[in-house]
Amino acid sequence: MGSPQLPDPVITLTGFAHALRANGVAADATRLAGAIEALTHVDPLDAAQVYWAGRLTLCAEPDDLPRYDAVFDAWFRDRLPSAGAPRSQPKGGQVLQLRPAAGDGTDRTAEQPEEQLPTAASDAEVLRHRDVAGLTDEERQEINLLVALLAPRLGTLRSRRRHPGGRERIDVSRTVRGMLRDGGEPAKLARLRRRPKPRRLVLLLDVSGSMSPYADVLLRFAHAAVRVAPSRTEVFTVGTRLTRITRQLRQRDPEQALAAAGTAIPDWSGGTRLGEGLQAFLDLWGQRGTARRAVVVLASDGWERGDATLLGEQMARLARLAHRVVWVNPHRGKDGFAPVTAGMAAALPHLDELLAGHTLDALHTLADVIAHA
Fold first, then answer.
1. Which terminus of the chain, N or C, has less C-beta within 10 A?
2. In 10 A of CB 222, how many CB atoms?
3. Distance between CA atoms of residues 67 and 65, nearest Å
4. Are 109 and 78 contacting, i.e. CB atoms less than 8 angstroms apart?
5. Helix (H, G, I), strand (E, B), or coil: what is residue 353?
6. DSSP class of residue 359?
């Protein structure tokens, strides 16, 4: 029999946090992110280390401790080697019993496959491939937690400024100063190099009525991106007008950030005028440097009610400014999709990538494209 292994920490701890919340422990998305980060610094097969990593990050008050102990025992039983961790005893009995307790003379290990995941963890994996438009409220809560952990990283570009080091170019002034210090004798050549810096990310999100089933999860993706690189990420919504919501999304809590963004968006679930919105972005922001050498992501189904010719012209302008232009269409991953709407047909010649955006797995792909652009 092989040694026990802990499954994907994101999936396992998301299910564990869900069980904790069901029992009154405040294991929200922020605390869950801290638990996953803490798990990278401990041995994930050591029950004591996993226990303390979760307890120190997922619990908010002393009353959470007995609930945490009960859920931990039920959730990780038979998943980790026994550790004899000095845990406090639950008050008033266990709060949750996910599986039958051991000690009745039955070999539970023999009854269950060694690599079987807890039910909630398996459900989290299934949800990765479900269309978010068809999720229940409870399933959306789980997806929201997972989207908050995406944290799309930005790629890098070579800055124009040079810094000491490397082998790219001789630093004449530093070399001469070194020779003067040595009495004019030849010295080691000082050199310069270009320091890489993060690329800028711009998100343009369609919040029209046809995009309403996907707008919430796309805004949560934008919030995760802003949280990772607040000074290098800009977010705008496009409906019947252009609205900048970067400042609202800089709030740490996702729910507060989305509530603030919703208040700032005047055309939520309205019409779609992508061409006019994109022209406003390029006139007010793009030409001033926001889109230059940036990765620009447009999330829309392409149902353009305005002039499609104008949209094509503005997409050509954007393609000349940006490093890469990525279009996210929630219908891209569905059977029978074809880019035949007026907006998609006008934009298609100017795109570097056309991606799906209807599932959590599709958003993972988008995060990878951003990171490697």
1. N
2. 29
3. 5
4. yes
5. strand
6. S
Distance CA 33, CA 144 (A): 13
Phi then psi dihedrals of residue 108, to 5 deg: -65, -30
pLDDT, tens digit, 9 for 90 and up, residues 24-60: 888 888 888 888 888 888 777 777 888 888 888 888 8
Question: Is 329 within 8 Å of 365 (Cβ atoms)?
Answer: no
106: helix, strand or coil: coil
Residue 235, classified by CB atoms within 10 Å of its CB into exposed (0-12), middle (13-18) or buried (19+), is: buried
CA distance 322 to 329: 19
Tell me the two tokens of residue 109: 């290990």
Q: Report residue 58 CA to chain centroid gap.
A: 20
30: Cβ contacts below 8 Å, ≥ 6 apart: 252, 253
Per DSSP, helices labelled H in 151-196 are 172-181
pTM of full prediction above 0.70: no
Q: Tokens representing 183?
A: 């009495």
241: DSSP letter: S
CA-wise closest residue to 205 among 163, 169, 226, 235:
235
In the three-class reduction of DSSP (H, G, I as helix; E, B as strand; rest coil), residue 352 is classed as coil
* Residue recorded with tokens 């409870």: 138
Pairing of strands 295-299, 324-329: parallel
What are the pLDDT digits (tens) for 311-346? 999 999 999 999 999 999 999 988 888 888 889 999
DSSP string for residues in 203-220: EEEE-SGGGHHHHHHHHH
For the chain, how are helix, strand and coil distributed in percent, rounded to 5?
45, 15, 40
Secondary structure letter of residue 129 according to DSSP: T
Amino acid 161: pLDDT? 66
